[in-house]
Task: structure prediction
Amino acid sequence: MEKKQVNSGMEYWKKIIILLCSGWVTIWIYRSALSPVFPQINESLGGNISDAALGSISSFYFLGYVIMQIPAGYLVDKIGKKRVLIPGFILFALAALLISQAANISMIYVGSFLAGIGCGSFYGSAYSLTSQNIPADKRSFSTAIVNSGSAVGSGFGLILSSFIVVQMKMPWQTMMYISAALTVCMLIAFALIIRSNKDDVAFIEREEAKAKAAVSTEESKPTISPAKLFAPKMLFTYVLYFATCYAYYMTVTWLPNFLGTERGFEGVAIGFSASLVAFASIPGALFFSRLADKYMNKKIQFIVVLELLAAAMLLITVQATNQVFLLIALILYGFLGKLAVEPIIISWLGENAPKVGVGTTLGVFNFFGMMSSVIAPSLTGKISDMTGSKEMGFYISVVLLVVGTVLFLLSNMKQAKKA
Result:
C-alpha cells in the first residue's frame, strides 16, 4: 500500500489546480503590465498619442478575448482542451512579441487584439477541466485557488512593470518579453500535464451513458441545444455574471482616478488604496468557497448574499466622505465581490449545465461577463465627460448587481427552497 502511494505521485486534479492558477498568473501579468507604462509607450511612439488612444490598447485586448469565448467553448467540447489551449497560447506569445516590436499604436492594437484571442482559449478549457476533474466537494474551493492567480498576476504585473520600467528605466518592451517567456513555460506545462483528447471523449461518453439511463435518447445527444443553453436559470446566471464583471472592471479601471480626483487621495496612497480590492479578494474567495463546499446545497444563497453585500459596499464607497470608511468599504468589496463569488457561481454552473456542453456553456457565460469589460470602462468615461464625476458609474454598477441578483434568485427559487 505504501509503495503504491509513493509511485502514484500528485493526483491529477491537484496538478490541474496548480496549472490553471499559473495560467491566470501569466495572463494577468500581461493584462496589467502595460497600463502603468502608458507614458513610456507614448514617448517611444513620438509623444503625441492621446490618453483615449492609449486606453484603447486594453479595449482591443478585451474585444479579442470576448470574441473568442463562444468559439473556444465550442471547440473545447468538440476537439478537447489541449488542442484549444496550446494553439491559443502560441498566438498569445507571438502577440506579446509583436507588441514589443511595434513601431506605431496601430501595431500595438493588432497585437493586443491577437493576445485577446489567444487568451480567450483559456477560460472554457480551464473551467471544463475543473468541472470534469475536481471532486464536487472540493470544487468551489479549488476554483477559488485557480481564480486567485488573477489577483496574484495582476499584483505582480503592476509591481514588475513599475519597478522594471519606471524605476529601473528599462524599455517598456521588457514586460512583453517577460510575458512571452512565461507563456512559453505555460505551453510546456500544458503539453506535459493535460491529458489527451481521448480522456475528454471518454468523459463525454460516460456522461452520455448516465444520461441515457435517466432520460430519453433525445436529451442525451452530445450537442447542447439553444433551449438548454438559454434556459431561464442559465440566461439569468449569464446576466448576473455580466453585472458582477461590470462592477469589477468599472472599479479596477476607474477607482484610482476616482480616488485621486474626487476623494482627495494623493501619490502612493492612490495605488495602495486601489490595490486593496485585489488583495482582499484572495482570502474572501478562499473563505467563502470553502463554506460553499461544506454546504453544497446552499450555493444559491451564498451567491445572492455575496452579490447584495458587494453592491452595498460599492454604494458606501461612492457615498463615503470619510476616507477611513471608504477604505473599509473597498476592502469589504474585495472580500465579498467578484473574485469571492465567481468560484461559487462557476461551481454551481458546472453542476447545472448539461454535462456534454460544459465548455460551450462556460464560453457563453464568460462571453456575457467579459462583454462588461468592453462596455464598463468606456461608458463610465463618457459619463465622467458629461457630468464631471464618475459617481454615476458606481451607481449604475450597484443597480446592475441588485437587478441581476434578483433575477438569478427568481429563476432558481424552487431550487433555493429545496435547499
Remarks:
- The chain has a mean pLDDT of 83.
- The chain is about 85% helix and 0% strand.
- The domain at 9-215 is CATH 1.20.1250.20 (Growth Hormone; Chain: A;).
